[in-house]
Write a structure and sequence with these properties.
By secondary structure, the protein is an alpha+beta fold. About 25% of the residues lie in helices and about 20% in strands. Strands 15, 19, 23, 24, 25, 26, 27 and 28 form an 8-stranded mixed β-sheet that branches. A 5-stranded antiparallel β-sheet has the order 2-1-3-5-6. Strands 9-8-10-11-12 form a 5-stranded antiparallel β-sheet, with helices on one face. Strand 25 (about 795-800) and strand 26 form a beta hairpin. The longest helix is centred in the middle third of the chain and has 17 residues, at about 500-515.
Length: about 850
């Protein structure tokens, strides 16, 4: 004991008490998915407050010399539904009564399911200091260590703070119509029971309009149950905005819906409004489930395998390396699906998992904020198999086996999600997102963090060649841009079951008119070949400014592959907007093939005898004065483009190169040049060697140069970035990261040009690094979306592993019996090696 006391005294200065703003990682290891619930528990450094599993705490001790750690272990409580709860001292488990989290009556939070034990451990000896040991130590030691322990226990962990801990789905706003709601004096009195829909005689899911007292059925649900939309149709015809759900009226209130506000609302005058139609709230009893109870029932079923099982078959759970599930952190299924697919690709495995020891060894002092570390941690967690084992019995049903349900321990990528979403307006939230947008966001992060060495995103990178032919002169213009995803249009007019679709639409209209149940949904069958034809067919440009004829004319644009990537991602453009600009999803079935040959779409470049459009800008507008150095630009057009979010210099160039011919032509120029390396670079005007806003090197702030150079860029690259952004540091940093490929091979001197010769004598810089090869591919994965738009719904992925299709739905990993390849959203192909 004396030895332990002496060690603690010697390291007392390294033991800190958490202060407001300190990041405390007491739920998850910085290098693995070990937690206090894991075998061996979690060790929290009492100086940096970083958490480490048993496997990595010795590494941290050896690297930093830190010796004092708080060892936290949690043991799952045995949950009992018995109301008497004999001997446990805990109240019986209550069913949720509110659609809420962390609020009385809401869903319980996970921490309540564990008993926690903490002790101080001294490394490298792993000497344990219990609370009893601490009590007998000198006061100065006892006080400092006790305060640190108490502070760590009281502090919110980072992962806890990142979650929505208190969320109340029942918080409703007072309707704007409630105070002044007009009610018709039509003498109508509603009985206390025995209601029926006035149109279809339905006896459940009934709503009474609070303006005229009409009793009508509610909305039809996605599965055909519910009502027949008669209450909604009545609002659309009458404009009467509010309705109350019959059967939910009690002395405490009722469910009130505002069609105009499209939400459940509060009605402070509900007793008065109900009394108008003879309903006394104080005598009413609840006979129907409230909307909250219906939503709670749905939330309690979230994650059940039956929701997305394939054709009702019983799916066989799989376990082992590469078969690890991921916990849903609240609408994070889009992230889970994308990362599962990415770590089946050798480039990502090699970059992050094969080099994991090197990455961890070079990690900064706070590895939780290091991109490479967190991606490597995620990849190892998915591929190692360490977390691919049945989850502990939740205790709700002692006879239920988690293995039979397919539930896994899995991994909870909280640190990873927080890091990749940091600062992003969408991915930093718990809202549902578009998997395609997240894939591009993650690829962009990989690009930024792989300026040297292997860049796994090159597996997806390819060049697109766009050929524009002026129909008047027949001269052509060729441009290339980098892309990572092929967006495949869905030509609905090419459906092979058009007659069946028209008949289904006719039956649906009849059912809506008569109030009969809707017929079963008929899905449009679109040939994959028709989608490819829509992608490759020439596009007509009606407002093209031709440098050959110096006027606007018609042109055709053809898009082809200038290179074929190792791995091809195809997005089916299912998501679109309706006539009311509400996002919607096309319900289509596409016969996506297992093998694909795109060789016919290979770009051929300039053909023999083909003339190119001259690289000449429209003539500058002149005034009666002598030569005008700067063109006279239409300020209103420039302003309109800037208001759309485009860079000022790009807007100026768009107006200049389209000869002040209007917003449409300028917008076409912007859309056609967004991927140009110098898109946002200053406009260089005739007779000048630099654009407006550029400055000689001497005037570039030295501190801005130093900041960018410290990020690993050369002084010349930093100079070019600052010149392109008028010396605004934040814009320069964004600019340089969006021009990495161009900067890799740039040859710029302090004056902006090579000192060895003129611009014309220089070799053009090589393009971005792309891999190329055969255009033949085989399907190895696809991500599917269920729901009406990207803002809601659920994602799952199917991956072909060892010639067997596997379905991964968050924490559940099973052998797929009938992979729905015709209903996917993102398809992943790998090149066939011949």
């Amino acid at each position: 004991m004396t030895e332990v006391s002496e060690i603690l005294m010697s390291v007392l200065s390294t033991i800190r008490v958490p202060r407001p703003g300190d990041r405390v990682h007491k739920d998850e290891c910085a290098f693995s998915y070990a937690s206090p619930e894991s075998e061996g528990g979690l060790y929290v450094c009492m100086n940096s407050f970083l958490g480490f599993g048993s496997k990595y705490v010795d590494r941290h001790n050896a690297k930093t010399g830190q010796r004092a750690y708080l060892h936290i272990t949690r043991i799952r409580k045995t949950q009992k539904e018995d109301d008497s709860n004999s001997g446990s001292g805990d109240p019986p488990k209550k069913k949720p009564t509110r659609l809420a989290i962390g609020i009385e009556g809401g869903f319980d939070v996970e921490q309540e399911q564990y008993e926690e034990e903490v002790n101080v451990v001294l490394l490298p000896e792993r000497l344990e200091v219990t609370s009893e040991d601490l009590a007998s130590m000198p006061d100065v030691v006892k006080e400092r260590v006790s305060l640190s322990i108490a502070g760590l226990q009281a502090a919110d962990s980072v992962s806890h703070a990142l979650q929505v801990q208190q969320w109340d789905g029942e918080v409703r706003q007072e309707s704007k119509h409630a105070a002044e709601l007009k009610q018709l004096n039509n003498g109508l009195k509603i009985p206390p029971s025995g209601w029926r829909c006035e149109v279809c005689d339905l006896q459940e899911n009934l709503w009474m309009n609070l303006t005229d007292g009409k009793v009508l059925c509610g909305r039809r649900y996605f599965d055909g149950t519910g009502g027949n939309n008669h209450a909604l149709q009545h609002y659309q015809q009458s404009g009467y905005p509010m309705a109350v759900k019959l059967g939910t009226i009690t002395p405490d209130g009722a469910d009130v819906y505002s069609y105009d506000e499209d939400d459940m609302v509060l009605d402070s005058k509900l007793p008065e409004h109900l009394s108008h139609f003879g309903i006394d709230m104080m005598t009413m009893e609840k006979t129907e489930r409230t909307m909250t109870e219906l939503e709670i029932a749905v939330n309690q079923r979230v994650g059940e395998w039956e929701v997305i099982q394939e054709s009702g078959t019983t799916l066989r759970p799989l376990w082992g390396p590469g078969l690890t599930g991921m916990k849903n952190l609240g609408n994070s299924c889009y992230l889970n699906s994308v990362m599962q697919v990415l770590f089946t690709i050798p480039d990502f495995q090699t970059k992050y998992v094969s080099n994991i020891d090197k990455i961890f060894g070079e990690a900064p002092s706070d590895p939780t904020q290091d991109f490479k570390t967190q991606v490597a941690k995620l990849g190892y967690g998915l591929l190692s198999g360490e977390y691919s084992k049945p989850a502990p019995d939740p205790g709700d049903d002692p006879n239920a086996s988690s293995e039979s349900r397919g539930d896994q321990v899995g991994i909870a990528p909280r640190m990873f999600k927080a890091l990749v979403g940091r600062g992003h307006p969408e991915f930093s939230t718990n809202r549902q997102q578009d998997a395609q947008e997240f894939l591009l966001h993650f690829i962009n992060m990989v690009e930024r963090n792989c300026r040297s060495g292997l860049n796994p995103s090159e597996a997806f990178r390819f060049l697109v060649e766009e050929k524009i032919v002026c129909q008047q002169s027949q001269k052509a213009k060729y441009t290339q841009r980098v892309d990572y995803i092929v967006q495949l249009p869905v030509p609905m007019d090419q459906a092979t079951n058009m007659e069946e679709l028209q008949e289904a639409e006719r039956r649906r209209d009849e059912a809506e008119a008569s109030g009969a149940p809707y017929p079963s949904v008929v899905r449009a069958q679109i040939p994959f070949a028709a989608c490819m034809a829509a992608l490759s067919e020439p596009e007509t440009l009606t407002d093209f400014w031709s440098s050959a004829v110096q006027a606007k004319t018609t042109a055709t644009k053809t898009t082809r592959f200038a290179s074929f990537p190792d791995h091809l991602v195809i997005q089916i453009k299912k998501f679109t907007f309706g006539l009311d600009w509400v996002p919607k999803k096309l319900d289509v079935s596409i016969d996506v093939p297992d093998t694909l040959d795109l060789s016919a779409l290979r770009a051929m470049g300039q053909q023999p005898g083909e003339e190119l459009l001259p690289e000449v800008a429209p003539p500058p507008l002149m005034t009666p004065d002598v030569e005008v150095k700067a063109p006279v630009l239409d300020d209103s057009t420039v302003s309109q483009l800037c208001e759309m979010g485009f860079p000022l210099e790009a807007c100026r160039k768009a107006v200049y190169y389209t000869g002040n011919t209007g917003i449409d032509a300028a917008m076409n120029w912007v859309m056609g040049h967004m991927d140009d390396p110098d898109f946002s670079a200053p406009l260089v005007m005739p007779g000048s060697s630099s654009g407006p806003g550029t400055t000689p090197t001497e005037s570039i702030p030295e501190e801005h140069l130093a900041t960018i150079v410290s990020m690993g860029f050369s002084r010349d690259q930093a100079t070019r970035a600052l010149r392109a952004t008028n010396n605004v540091l934040e814009r320069a940093v964004d600019w340089i990261f969006s021009h990495l490929d161009d900067l890799e091979s740039m040859d710029v001197s302090e004056g902006g040009r090579s000192e060895g010769g003129s611009e014309a004598s220089r070799e053009p810089p090589p393009g971005p690094r792309v891999r190329d090869g055969s255009g033949k591919y085989e399907l190895f994965a696809f991500i599917s979306h269920m729901g009406t738009s990207t803002m809601c719904g659920h994602y799952v992925c199917h991956i072909k592993k060892d010639q067997q299709w596997v379905i991964i739905n968050d924490q559940k990993v099973c052998a797929s019996e009938k992979p729905p390849k015709d209903l996917g959203y993102l398809y992943f192909y790998r090149r066939v090696v011949e």
